[in-house]
Structures are given as C-alpha cells and as structure tokens.
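Quick check before the chapter quiz. The format below is the same one you will see on the exam, so make sure you can read both the input and the output lines.
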Amino acid sequence: MGAALGRRSSSTSSVSCSSRPVSGQCVTTHLIVGRVDLARHLPGGARPECRAGESGPARATWARYRARREQRQVDSQRKDGQVPEADAVVLDGRYELGELLGRGGAADVHRAHDRVLDRPVAVKLLRQGGEEEGDRARFTAEGRLLARLQHPHLVAVLDAGTEGDRPYLVMQLVEGPTLSQACRAGPLDAEQVRAVGQGLADALAHVHEAGMVHRDVKPGNVLLDGTGRARLSDFGIARLLADATRHTSTGITLGTAAYLSPEQVRGEEVTGATDVYALGLVLLEALTGDREYTGPPMEVALARLHRTPQVPDRLPQPWPGLLRAMTAMRPQDRPTAAEVARVLGGVEGAAVAARWRSASGRAG
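Here is the expected output.
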C-alpha cells in the first residue's frame, strides 16, 4: 500500500472488525465499515453466509442496515409529499420532537421543545430497528458517562428516559454547524483552530481525569455554537479506562476509520493518547481543509500503520511540531490532552515544549 494509502476525500466510515467466528454457518472472519461489508474483499470474494433463523453479529448488522434503508425510503417519500407527516411525537408528555438534526448508527437526534421549562433541547432517541442488546448498552452507557461530566466544551445531558422500550437522552441544544460542515468551505483561520483545539483538549483532559476515553473524536462530533465555541459530543462508544482494553463483548473494535489511532487498528490498549491522536488529525484537517487519510475504508484504517500524517511546515507555530507529536505512532510519544491545552493556550512550559518537540522529531 505504501505512502500513497488513503489521501483526501470527504467520506467518513465507522469501522467494526472481528476475528471471532459467529454462530452457525456464519464463520467467515468479517470486517464491517459503516454500511459496507468488507467480506466481499476477502480472498476469493468470500462473504459470511447466514442461514435463515440464525443469530449473530452479521445478522444483527444487516437488520440495522435494512431498517436504515427503509427509513431513508420513508424520509424520501415524505420529502416528496407522498407520505404525510405524523402527529407531533411527545416523549413522556414533556419533550415534543421537531426536525431531525442528525442520524447515528443506531439513534436519531431531534430538535425538541421542553414543554415544562419552555426551552429548546436536543433529544437523542434510539431508533426502531436499533434495539439490539449492544446498541442499548452503549446508549445507556453514554447517558451515564455524560451525566458524570460537566465542562463548557462538552454537550451537557439534561435528562434521560424511556418511551415505550426506546431509551432517549435529552441534551443541551447547540445551535450551529459541526466542525465537519465548517471545514467544507476550506481551511479555518489558525487562531480559530487554536481556540477550538484548546477547548477540545481541555475537555478531553477532563474526560481522561474522570477515568474515561472517548474513542471517536472526529469533526462530525464537534459542534460549534454561534460564538464559535466548540463542544465535543457523542460518547456512544466511550469507555471507562479500566475497561478500555476490551472492545465489545463480541471482540469488535469501534471507531471512525479516518480518525482511528494506530493502536486501535492493531487492536491494542486504548488510552487517553488515542483521543489525542484523533484530535491531532481533526485539527490538521481544520488547518489544511483536507482529510489526511481517505479512500476505501480498509485502506484508510491501515494507512496510518505505514506512514505518519503529512504536516505542512508552512503552518504557523506551534502547529507543525505539536501536530506531529499528537499523531506520533507510539502512544507514549504523544503529549497528554492537558499538555496540548496548555500549549495552545500559550502556557507552554519548558518541559512540555521539550517533550512534544522531541516526539515530533521521532514521528517525522
């Protein structure tokens, strides 16, 4: 694959990989990235074949895919006026759902109105067809983790509940684009990126101090409010650091291919350094307007094992050295999130500066 692996396009892909056999006849090792089953890329074009009535990860994945496809068809018909809008959905007699703001792997995020406090909120609702045990467990874990965190650069959880058998989270509504949307117009101003990076690094330091790791830092999970303040969202696959060496109960590694760290690709221990690596790629993309690792999902995931990110020397200080240190191949060579926040805040310190400059030399 070499140095040409994965450069510059605009698609993202969530990656799940498993080397464990699944039930019955479905024994092919499989890698599922977003909605793409990469078993078709295995030697001989092998694909897992699951007989009717069998259970297992492959069957659950295709069930989610079919549910998403059917929902997209309904959404398309509704947009064309073929399907009338349903009456307003009100959760627990309080949260009136409005427009759809975003769709994740198993949940939808709606703008909503809190009838009790008369304020706008965001509601994240587990989608019908996304109620597999793993989805529900991650959804519940996200609410519990976020409830333990309070930081100005994190999206706050305000409430939680269950409508029927579908859990939901009520969150602070951030009015503004995602960082991914902001970057579509091209590179952002270096000072704006510095402010965004400092806030996100400080938020991650808070997360890590609480004994957690996010595991899916990417531009699409960074919300920008009307003042330009960045808030990190979507802790759906976050884990306590004490449990971070495990991926899931079925041996699946979760994350977004373009922003996975080398240790995530290798299936090694996930720590706070994993989030720092992803943040480095996010900030590099914001400064250059280009995603560093792109292409087919498998190549995107593996590319970082063959080359480190290409950080332009033309970037203003402290970006070249800092970004190279944040995306160093070895986790121990990366600065902590707290150190990144201090560097971007201008409180560099001799020890911090020496560490990331030394690491950037090894990474290059």
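If your answer matched, good. Residues 179-363 form a domain with the Transferase(Phosphotransferase); domain 1 fold (CATH 1.10.510.10).
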